[in-house]
């Protein structure tokens, strides 16, 4: 039954469809119920205004109860958080240990991510080894003498205080302030959870009348009119007297107008103080608003009926023209023109369809460019990887002869009791074999570090006490996949250019650390360092795409291989101080084969 009717409607032109829609959906319903609604609205608007205000205040109170429950629950959890206790009460002798502790303790950030009701969580402690990081704050004299801190220290319950820390911000915010005792350490501190000002304001933004939230001292902590935030009850800008005692409805003169003031209170659980909600409306505005709404409604009714047909024709014309334009651009794409662009504006479905069409064309072009770029990058990476093998193969005389000779030398040294020489010769053989067998396949970071350790042991045999090294390897990084010979050239560069001129005390540190989804690798030396001019020259040379003939496998090769392997955001970062040393760092994605 419905299918033939739907097919017939689909064959009707859009203009005629809109006329039918106007008659049956707009004109007839409005004419039928318009008169009834206007008469009913006139009578009920006045009665509902006062009741609405009281209900609105009750709703704001419920929303505040819900909002305040979030920081209360968080503070209750932190009250028994043993990890927080350990972070706050540990005596840190090294900055690195403190940084690691901060990095590992993410509860504050997790709460901020989960709950939009709060904007900051801070813990104030007297532990002198703590460094301020906007989450853990060391109590100084100014904080210790502040009224909010003294209130928290001397109270066993939660306090709601309109406060700020001048060292962090000049803006005051309503905050949960609570003392936390650590029984295991017989110490304490003060937890501060700042409520989100935007969230507080959003609770009041939709209120029809002026509504405010005040703390126990009479300060406005949130208001529909945000210019009133920070004012105190009794301020001339508020125009509200201070004789409002407890919950109820008061009739007062506010800014020269007789007004009704609805007052309610919010007293959260386990709190020493609470908040006060005040909503103000002028008696005259209730009647005036009701009359204005009736006039506006009547005017709109007449306007809709008089101008509906005129707009109907205009809308149908606009829709047809825009659809035709979009169809022409689609035909161009169908013929292979990927530069076709639809210029149809608007936020309706046709405008959205036009933007999606443009996005689709751009995506097709981008995909084609990415395929080409990916093929080009893979080709360059393959050439770069093979370049290592070719340069190593150039040094091959006869691998079997070389390994047999080294093994003979090692055995001779071992027989004669030269254990150190035998050990170094074995490392040298292992190092040369690894270099000769290098190929396109990635290795693991642990395998690369074993190669580097062999290389450093040989260099230490050469330099003696002039060279020392440290391998600080994060256990989480050992199985990470890494291109071969990506770190060894950096170590070689540090020895040749940084430490060869030192007579003693040379130190190389190779450090790996997992940070989220990346692995950070640092090669640090305390050698001669690089001047600013030379450092800038080295950084510029990393951007050269082709190495000149005769260049060794060095920084440029490593830098370009990193970019080819992982993208333009990866590569070497070099920092140095003349006479103090050099640090070369890079990161790779934390992936395994």
UniProtKB/TrEMBL annotation:
An annotated Gene Ontology molecular function: protein histidine kinase activity
EC code(s) of this entry: 2.7.13.3
HAMP domain residues: 317-369
Membrane topology term: Multi-pass membrane protein
Keywords from the UniProt entry: Cell membrane, Coiled coil, Kinase, Membrane, Phosphoprotein, Transferase, Transmembrane, Transmembrane helix
Localization terms from the record: Cell membrane
PROSITE patterns for this protein: HAMP
Record flagged with keyword Kinase: yes
Entries under Pfam families matching the protein: HAMP, HATPase_c, His_kinase
Residue intervals passing through the bilayer: 20-41, 293-315
Coiled-coil residue spans: 43-70
Protein's name in the database: Sensor histidine kinase
Record-linked CDD domains: HAMP
Uppermost EC category: transferase
